[in-house]
Amino acid sequence: MYRILLVDDEILVRDAIKENIDWEGIGCQLVGDCENGQQAAEFVKEHPVDIVLTDILMPYMDGMELSHFLHDNYPDIVIVIFSGFGEFEYAKKAIQYNVSEYLLKPVTAMELTGVINKMKEKVDQKRQEKQKMEKLTKASESYRKNAQVIRSKAIEALVNCTTNVEESLERLRNMGIDLSAVRYRVAMFDIDIYSDMYQLDMEKRQESALMAFVLYNISDEIVKREQVGIVYQEGGNRVCILFQEKWSRDFTGKTKEICREIKDKMKEVMGIDVSMGIGDWVKNPGELILSHDMAEQVMQYRYLLGGNLLIDMAEQRSVKIVPLDRLLEELTEALKTGKKEQVESTFQEMRDSIRQALVEKSRACMYLQQIVRTIDRVCEDVSVDMKRILSGRDELLHSITKQKSFDSACRIVEDYIMKIFKLLSDMNSSTGQRQARLAMNYIQKNYMDPDLSLNDICSYLNISTSYFSTIFKEMTGETFTEVLIRTRMEKAKELLENTTMKNYEIAEKVGFSDPHYFGISFKKMTGVTPTEYARERRR
Description:
This is Stage 0 sporulation protein A homolog. It is found in: Cytoplasm. The chain is 61% helix and 11% strand. The protein contains 24 helices and 10 strands. Strands 2-1-3-4-5 form a 5-stranded parallel β-sheet, sandwiched between helices. The protein has a 5-stranded mixed β-sheet with strand order 7-8-6-9-10. Helix 12 (325-337) runs antiparallel to helix 13, helix 13 runs antiparallel to helix 17 (406-427) and helix 18 (431-446) crosses helix 20. The chain is flat and about 95 Å long.
């Protein structure tokens, strides 16, 4: 029998539902009816309830507040909300409280009966899950009292070198475990949904230990069948295998097959994905920590690759440096010239390059932040209002680093790229604006040419010098000569600050054929000579 509580502030609605539903015929019992959420909350404290049918708008405590209360305190209760038309979108927000169904008033007896029958299936499912968890809890408690825990601790101490190797081996021999093999390797298993890819509440943390117990049993059964090593638990939630090669020539392939079988079995039995890392081979037990640490490194790759991994680290040759310079130049060019497809494809190539390099999270975030800063320089180059761009910049960069996955961090950067692309596209919406932006881009690319002139740009844009001078001044607030000199001086400052080049070398680099004229121009703009500037700024 399924126990149902009805909550609605309209007595006519409550009476109609009570009288028009054949409660006994559908295997249910209406255990109570309340006129507001406050009464309902008090009722469930004193009486067992399986399903709550509740209205939205009620005095003292409405249906949303009641759903919140039930979600936090009685998660096994199935909630059904019915509401008026104007409240329906509001009711949908209750998804965060695990509301199972939404009904639009007026509700017919047939419609409500159908929903209740569906909710009975949910109650059955919750009961089965609860029974399963209770069984697992009992089994787990029993497991923690037996000798397997002691064995796991002893093997973990050996592998992680927390005790003397000879003492660990002697202790294991006393347990009947003889570690004598040609070589050894460690495989590590970690259940994805309980990893740091997700935010775990207390219930999930408790559940994770139970699921690790299931994983342990599956692994132990398969490894014993194949006689290839020893399964042990590391900490509360991880399961490891200490593989021992004694006779098989293709034992490397065999270990991977065994790991894949465990992985598939866990998915079949519990519907849960597991990430697995396999360390390289070592020749003696004293080196097992090297294999263990390699296996553990795979768990860090979940940030880049997502979960459900099976990686043999002996096969991996990670690239620690990602060459982004060419791609950053291509992204800059595509943004300035308004080529959306190239912007998207270039960022995708960047994302793939970082992912394939298998770098740690901190370095992956550094590359993404480098992309953001490159975009900022694009905006500076085309004279965008930087106050508008830099607003919230620290929050954006912080948001990249706090994401649980590389994909979610990439989505933040991609959204930012497309926001800047739209901004630049809007700025280039008129012919005059677009030509001014193209001219700025041309100067950025060719400022080092001492012969760069107004005629060169006008020829590039295919417009007259008088028309160009007018629109350029109008759009940028500066003349061509002013922008060119400013660009050359900014580049000269960078070289003076960050290199040990001579003044005449810098002059040549930024487009001055006469070093003396460069010195005069630099002092006119900055108030100091190049030598004085370098002395103050160089580190």
